[in-house]
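Hey team,

Filing this mostly as a record. A colleague (T.K.) asked me to run one chain through the structure pipeline before their review meeting, and I want the input and output archived in the tracker in case anyone asks later how it was produced. No errors, nothing strange. Just documentation.

Input sequence:
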Amino acid sequence: MLSATVSREADRFYVSLTCEVERPDPKPKEVRGERDVVGLDLGLSAFAVLSDGTRIAAPRPLAKKLRLLKRRSKQLSRKEKGSNNGKKAALRLTRLHRKVKNLRLDFLHKLTTWLAKTKPVIVVEDLNVKGLFRGQLSRSVADVGWGAFRRILAYKAEWYGATLIVAPRSFPSTRLCSRCGHLQGRMPLSQRVFWCEACGLEVDRDLNASVNLQKYGLAHLTGSTGSSSGSHACGDSSGGGTAFHGSRSTSHGSWKQEVACGRDSLGR
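Output structure:
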């Protein structure tokens, strides 16, 4: 044991122990087919939509407890500072905040463990979470915990031998048609159904994005990226790349070629 840190939260004390433990690197999971590559699109109505059609509802603990939080905050503001009743009201409010946090973390840990154990390759998008905190949806974004989800998923992918691929922010997963590759214009958040002007595809907006992320991951694993010099998987000699294991991310902009190669590997 290297150190111990004692902390207090509401009426409970916690001891965090720092230990140095050797953890052998797990054998990377074998990718046998395109079903082993799962695209994952994060949202607010549903926390995540997988490319296989699985929808994972968000627990939204803050939204469910918000009315009670406001009530207890108002009760605390009416108490005399330093009084026993004031201390009791502050303790009730702190306990409720702790419950909201624990509900969120419990959901994130269970979901990330399930993904890392059952999915050989997980493809997510690099979202600008800090930028979203400055918008009108800041409370909803904080409630779902996208930033914590990415952080937890990254180290659990290493623990269980899964491969985590992060598509760059420039990749238009929402506006790209998952059938023909046509790039649509801007899509407001209120538009929940994706309709392609080119081929007429009509599909759920989040499912379309997750399928595009899956194709991005397939193209990345076949080496059709522009992150390094070499031969492109589709025959383009302008760039190539290799697959990787663990929680590393990509940051290149040749998403049009990659998704095109992903469609070829799917036979579409």
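Quick notes for T.K.: The helical segments are 61-77, 84-118, 129-132, 138-144, 146-160, 205-221, 255-266. Residues 84-118 form the longest helix (35 residues).
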